[in-house]
Amino acid sequence: MDPSTRDNAFRESLLRDSRKVTDYPPACPKCGGNIGNIFRCRTCFFPDVMCLRCMKSRHEGNPLHRIELARRYAPEWKLVDYDILTLRTRLGGHTTEAPCPNGDSVQKFKVIALDGVHHFWIVFCGCKGMSRVAQLEQVRLYAVGENPVEASTFEMARYWEDNVLVVPPWRGGEGGEQRSVE
Fold first, then answer.
1. Same-domain status, 38 and 70
2. Residue 63: is it exposed, middle or buried by C-beta count within 10 angstroms (0-12/13-18/19+)?
3. Residue 181: inside a domain, yes or no?
């Protein structure tokens, strides 16, 4: 890659992250509604800015995304907890528009992922007869216990297995002594 191209890409990245909140239009680019607070997602491929309603609609099924908020009067971006967004992640293929008729109560949930710990609200499906553990496995979360309130992503479980739980090759001898490399 040409160094000037790389420099331009880096400069563009810095420019995007340093834009002032007042540089954004007062209307949401998605719905056209008035924006009081501006939201953006650090994880989405296209980190568009939008209003709260559009951000909630886009991230109902993406609870592991990192959403940031900037207020018009305090123009720095801050990471938002999903409690503020009042997002509910519904399992079993249900959505806000078509909720589970037998849905369990809303439960606070903690997920450990490669990029950190996420806290969000989850609604388990009660109509398909699936256990909570099975519902979590459907969305690639490894549950902790039979009645889980926390889980890890499959990627985090794989990382843990590959880097922590395996015996390093140099510990292969009896008693785990390190072999000489002579």
1. yes
2. buried
3. no
**Rounded to an integer, what distance in angstroms lies between the CA atom of residue 26 and that of residue 38?**
9
Q: What percentage of the chain exceeds 70 in pLDDT?
A: 75
Nearest Cα neighbor of 123 from 146, 145, 92, 148 is 92
Q: Give the confidence band of 76 by pLDDT, cuts at 50, 70, 90.
A: confident
Q: Do 95 and 73 sit in the same domain of this protein?
A: no
Q: How far apart are CA 86 and CA 100, in angstroms?
A: 18
Q: Which two tokens stand for residue 164?
A: 């922590």
Which amino acid is residue 140, in one-letter code?
R
Q: Report the DSSP beta bridge partners of residue 151.
A: 111, 143
Q: Kindly report the pTM of this predicted structure.
A: 0.70
First to last CA, the chain: 42
Residues linked to residue 121 through DSSP beta bridges, in sequence order: 88, 108
Is residue 87 within 8 Å of 120, Cβ to Cβ? yes
Alpha helix ranges (H) inside the chain: 3-18, 52-59, 82-85, 132-138, 154-160
SS3 (DSSP) at 138: helix
Per the domain annotation, does 122 fall within a domain? yes
